[in-house]
Amino acid sequence: MTIATTLIVLAISFFLTAITAPAVIPLLRRMKFGQSIREEGPKSHQKKAGTPTMGGVIFLFAIIATTIVLGYLNDALTSQTVVLILVLFGFGLIGFLDDGLKIIFKRNLGLTSLQKLIGQIIISIAAYFLLGLGAFQNIIHLPFSNFALELGGFYVLFLIFWLVGFSNAVNLTDGLDGLVSGTASIAFAAFGVLALVNNQIDIAIFAFAVTGALLGFLMFNANPAKVFMGDTGSLALGGALAMLSVLVGHEVLLLLVGIIFVLETLSVILQVASFKLTGKRIFKMSPLHHHFELSGWSEWRIVLTFWLTALVAALIAVVPEVLK
């Protein structure tokens, strides 16, 4: 896959998102698909109430269309492409239902945690069986080494944990304008480069299609956001990113590439554990970005700092693999 092809993939998904968003955002507004804001969240977020949500449908369309068309033109539509689209669409559908229920009932709770978990597990198992139809090996590779761990039939449990975990981690991170759009675009680009190193053209096309679409979406999602991606977008991105790490053979490396998602999730876990065990909170509020908000940081400062952290982590993860 040439640099020119990579740029074409990025450009097409970017422009598909950029030209679709101005038509979809007013439609979401007319349909009163506005975001409900948690009362217990930062008070500064109350002004965002009513901002159109479910914007994930915009870039999901661009990603899937670009992946299919460019994959076909480059003779790179494979079973792995199908798995990636299945996870992206499946997790996105769960998020779409969740967002829809929030809007219909005018509340900040859509599907219950159990309902979402069941849906995520079903899609993860379906993805595992689709992988089994090919030459997929049930192995976890440790980064910066030649060591690999054979899990056999237990790999399905790891896959469920990985997809569900990162899907929810990205969802937790989606709390500031442009935060997930920027950090996820960096993460997908990183795995796109790793796919190119492995000569996995089908996977690289998907990864860069996501990157381009998110950069296009960022024009409307950056502060002050004109639209939110909602669970429709965040759940889809998290699941697809985890699946991408599996197909590229760098599962564990996702902990570094997706460091922001990991830290945001850890902040929630530590906060809950600390409060239950000691009655005291470690952070002013979790997830982590809210802690910085209540510490006086501006939204832009937090987002730019997290983007930079994500970029540095991605470079640390990818550069050694490229130079091998």
From TrEMBL:
Family statement drawn from the similarity comment of this UniProt entry: Belongs to the glycosyltransferase 4 family. MraY subfamily.
Membrane-traversing stretches: 6-28, 49-73, 79-97, 117-140, 152-172, 179-197, 203-220, 227-247, 253-279, 300-319
Catalytic activity: UDP-N-acetyl-alpha-D-muramoyl-L-alanyl-gamma-D-glutamyl-meso-2,6-diaminopimeloyl-D-alanyl-D-alanine + di-trans,octa-cis-undecaprenyl phosphate = di-trans,octa-cis-undecaprenyl diphospho-N-acetyl-alpha-D-muramoyl-L-alanyl-D-glutamyl-meso-2,6-diaminopimeloyl-D-alanyl-D-alanine + UMP
Protein name: Phospho-N-acetylmuramoyl-pentapeptide-transferase
Enzyme class: transferase
The protein's Enzyme Commission number: 2.7.8.13
Function statement: Catalyzes the initial step of the lipid cycle reactions in the biosynthesis of the cell wall peptidoglycan: transfers peptidoglycan precursor phospho-MurNAc-pentapeptide from UDP-MurNAc-pentapeptide onto the lipid carrier undecaprenyl phosphate, yielding undecaprenyl-pyrophosphoryl-MurNAc-pentapeptide, known as lipid I.
InterPro entries: Glycosyl_transferase_4, PNAcMuramoyl-5peptid_Trfase, PNAcMuramoyl-5peptid_Trfase_CS
Pathway in which this enzyme or protein is active: Cell wall biogenesis; peptidoglycan biosynthesis
GO MF entries: transferase activity
